[in-house]
Amino acid sequence: MNTINTPLPQQNGRLFLTDGGMETTLIFHEGFDLPYFAAFDLINSKQGRDALKRYYEPYAALAVSSRTGFILESPTWRASRDWAEKMGYDRQQLAAANQNAITLLREIKHEFEMPDSPFIISGCIGPRGDGYVVGEAMSADQAQAYHREQIRTFAQSEVDLVSAITMTYVDEAIGIVRAAGEFKLPVVISFTTETNGSLPDGMSLREAIEAVDAATNHGPAYYMINCAHPDHFRQALEENAEWVRRIQGVRANASRMSHAELDEAEQLDSGSPEELGKLYAELRHQFPQFNVLGGCCGTDHRHIKHVCQSCMH
Question: Which pTM was predicted?
Answer without folding.
Answer: 0.96
